[in-house]
Amino acid sequence: MSDDFLSQEEIDTLLGGDDGEESAAEASTAVPFDFTQLESIRKGGLPGLELIFERWVKSFRDEVRTVVPHVNMVSKDNVYITRFSAFMGKIPQPSSYTSLLMRPLKEQGMFVLDSRLVFAVISVLFGGEAKPFKVEGREFTKLEMQVINNFIAIVVESFEEVWRPIYEISIERKSTELNPVFAQIVSPNEKVAIVECSMNIDEYEAPMFFCFPLSMFMPIKEIIYSELSGETEEGWSEELQRRVLALKSVMTLEVARKHYLVKEILAWQEGDELTLGVSKDSGLLLRVGQKHKFECQLGRSNEHYAALIKEQVEFS
To answer: 201 with 259, same domain?
Structure first.
């Protein structure tokens, strides 16, 4: 009867007990983990800096369009805190790294221009399409460096202008490096604030980055870490009003309006006269854009036809 029972060794063999122990041992092998990575990225927390860049992208967009009319949009995509080494590791090569002194702040910030954006700008400037180009790890040519320098000049000028009503700073471009080894503005483990922006050129979008050591903003932490005051909003409102008043508008003086049949128009010949039924006392419509804004009277001034404004139409 006892011969019908399996021994414990035979049972373990059938169930694969030995292999299971080995597999469990392999699965439980410890893997090193860097606990500092838990704090490597922290989104938000810099509302003042975010508001500054929301204003900057609008100002920069207007300025850069004078050089690159194909620019559709410039946007602020993300603001976060990370370690400097983690940020530098995500930038494709080649890229340009421009160190910026923002006096009276003591430490340096950095503006990183992604190579994809450089190639897209150059392509549209020479009549090509804004599309992604293969980054081959080569250095920039002299032409590409000239475009980069002009681009950075616009960035610096517009960025300084946006800061002016908030905190008076003077931005000095210290150096532009192509090798990231020479662009170490802080130690690799130091925390930095990163602002990711993007530019849309003919529906192709490419990134650019701002990098600031957190210690750089300690003298103005009330501005960076909190919402900006109403005084700043007032300054921005005045700037917006100035820009609106500088806009150009199209004005049209409507002398007459008549209806003709298509067959009558087809019968017109050179020398035919069209009677408009307008006299010097007739009231004319002066339009600004597509809106009727003024009542006028036709006249002459210094041998030129002119319109005398008689009445302003109330805005509806």
So the answer is: no
Helix (H, G, I), strand (E, B) or coil at 267: coil
Domain containing 66: what range? 38-245
Residue 112 burial class via C-beta count within 10 angstroms: exposed 0-12, middle 13-18, buried 19 and up:
buried
**Residue 12 falls inside a structural domain:** no
DSSP-derived secondary structure letter, 153: H
Alpha carbons 241 and 237: distance in angstroms, whole number:
6
- In DSSP notation, 181-248 reads GG--SS-TTSEEEEEEEEEEETTEEEEEEEEEEGGGGGGGHHHHSSPPPHHHHHHHHHHHHHHHHT--
Parallel/antiparallel/unpaired status of strands 304-312 and 291-301: antiparallel
| Beta carbons of 153 and 163 less than 8 angstroms apart | no
Residue 228 tokens read as: 């900006």
Beta bridge partners of 196: 78, 209
Summarize the confidence of residues 8-30 as an average pLDDT. 58
E strand or H helix at 295, and its extent? strand 291-301
Do residues 308 and 233 both lie within one domain?
A: no
Cβ-proximal residues to 169 (8 Å cutoff; 6+ apart), any chain: 102, 103, 104, 105, 160, 163
**Confidence check: pLDDT of 202 > 70:** yes
Phi, psi of 304 (to 5 degrees): -125, 145
Number of domains present in the structure of the chain: 2
pLDDT of residue 3: 55
Question: Which residues contact residue 80 at a Cβ distance below 8 angstroms, ignoring those fewer than 6 apart?
Answer: 41, 42, 43, 44, 193, 194
Is 60 exceeded by the pLDDT of residue 25?
no
How high is the pLDDT of residue 232? Answer: 46
**Which residues have a Cβ under 8 Å from the Cβ of 272 and sit 6 or more positions away?**
none
**Same domain, yes or no, for 187 and 289?**
no
In the block, which residue shows the tokens 């838990």?
38
For residue 193, list its beta bridge partners. 81, 212
